Amino acid sequence: MNVSEHTEPVADHHGVPGPTHESATPEARLSSLETMMLIRAYEEQLVELQRGGAPGTCTSVGQEACAVGVIGALDERDRILTNHRSAGHLIARGADPGRMMAEVLGRTDGYCGGRSGSLHIASRELGVVLTSTIVGGELSMAPGMALAQKMGRGEPGGIVAVFFGDGAACEGIFHESLNLAVQWQLPLLFVCENNQWQAFVHRLETMPDRAIADWAHSHGLPTRSVDGNAVEEVYAAAARAVAEIRVTGSPQFLELVTYRQRGHFEPDDQSYVDPDELVAWRRRDPIQGYREHLLESGLIDPEGLAAMERRVRERIEAAAAFAQASAWPAPDRLTDHVYA
Ligand SMILES: Cc1ncc(C[n+]2csc(CCOP(=O)(O)OP(=O)(O)O)c2C)c(N)n1
């Protein structure tokens, strides 16, 4: 996988050496694997529930390293905006899978009291201020959030990170948002998860191959394009960008080259996908690859891995039981939070 940097050197007095994956502790690496496994198990459980009649969802299967790598580089001061493929971002941020599942099922214990489904979960306590299902909606609000941060309305030292897809990068708002962030020097990390698909259209039908990083670079943003299936690479690139944004107060761009392994939403038979492409990317599965890497490096042994899998399975079973036992909202609460 080609990794490229389009970074203009940040001036020395601004530059701080960002952490690299070598600085990640063994505990952090094991925790990254377990969180990726938790995200995968959560979404697979949602698919099961959907087959039983629960509302559908957009999964991020195959993109777990993007969520875990970037969110791992942020801290509690930071604010996050995301899109319809948000489960990984939320879980990596520490969301409770039981409350997330309750939200998808429309129950009172969900993060938004059952009003949002999977497509609009927001949580003040997690600092996830927006999940937008309007493609590019998150890009329209991110500069405003980052401006508020710059004006002292956020946590001191915090930054804003916005996740969006390659499809959103084809919308006009992408350019407006990048331009504004540069002109106003906003503490904003743009994170494009280039998962090759835009609903049922392959991205190469809508853009030249290397367009996303080139566009970002032409707007004057320090830009890194990395293998989005390699969690340590994602973390290293994100950690450097975040560290630089905290010092300079100006925006940076990260393109994560990855793949959406399941359909656009559930159910979706992916009949429009070239089967060879699917096989090739499944061979590069981020979780399987990292599992093998940690086994080979001796950080975990097969028994440790089995215990990890068991913990994940138990958490997801408990989450599903919690969500299904959660009460439906009372009909007389229907108009709560409706202002006009
Ligand atoms: C403004 C707008 N146009 C179209 C849609 C329908 N739609 C939902 S997701 C999607 C594809 C988005 O692709 P991308 O940004 O690459 O994100 P991905 O789904 O691949 O994660 C489309 C076209 C929408 N929700 N909003």
Short overview:
By secondary structure, this protein is α/β, with parallel strands linked by helices. It has 11 helices and 9 strands.
Q: In CATH terms, what is the fold-level topology of the domain at 35-73 and 134-324?
A: Rossmann fold
Bound molecules: thiamine diphosphate
CATH homologous group name of the domain at 35-73 and 134-324: Thiamin diphosphate (ThDP)-binding fold, Pyr/PP domains
Total strand count, please?
A: 9
Please tell me the CATH architecture of the domain at 35-73 and 134-324 by its name: 3-Layer(aba) Sandwich
What is the gyration radius calculated from CA atoms?
Answer: 19 Å
Given as residue ranges, the uncertain stretches (5+ residues, pLDDT < 50) are 7-19
Structural class by SSE content: alpha/beta
N-to-C SSE series? EHHEHHEHEHEEEHEHEHHH
Counted by DSSP, the helix tally is 11
Q: What's the mean pLDDT score?
A: 93
Please indicate the percent range of residues in DSSP E strands (runs of 2 or more): 5-15%
Summarize the main sheet: 7 strands, mixed
Q: For this structure, what is the CATH class of the domain at 35-73 and 134-324?
A: Alpha Beta
